[in-house]
Amino acid sequence: MKKLNEVSLLPEFDKDIKKLLKRFKTLENDLDIFIESELYLYHKLNVDNKGIFQIPNLHIDEPKIYKAKKFACRSLKGRGSRSGIRVIYAYFAKEDKIELIEIYYNGDKIKEDRKRILKHYKSKGRQDIAEDLTPRLSYQSHFLSWQKIILVYNLILNNKKIW
Prior knowledge:
The chain has helices at 11-21, 27-43, 114-120, 129-157; strands at residues 6-9, 52-54, 64-68, 85-92, 97-105. It has 163 residues and is α+β, with helices and mostly antiparallel strands. It folds into two domains: 6-126, 2-Layer Sandwich (YaeB-like fold), CATH 3.30.2310.20; 127-163.
């Protein structure tokens, strides 16, 4: 079976890996091994070692965004695949393409950068729910609260029973 058609990386990923290379010297070679073995096994041969998960609640139809938690880094001796290195990537199934989005050490950062993901991969015809609806809903709820307060205040001023 053929390896993946294309593996590309975002400019931000390049910055992330350069920053981590100062601490983890083998990271570049480890990443190549990870792509050739783990990603190939997961996406081409459907072998799941419970180390790669699809990131939920992104509301992105295509591509699928994954987080790899099992990443063996030789610079972190004795830790094996539980090195704490996380790789976030997009998989385009039709093109058989991987696009590396983010790499980070779990000790420095706990979660993936969702803003970065949404910046590059927004769902077609649908805006980001968090950015689109939240301000409008909070404005409406404040507006309704103030309307109720003014109504009650006017009723009290006019000596009308409210309850």
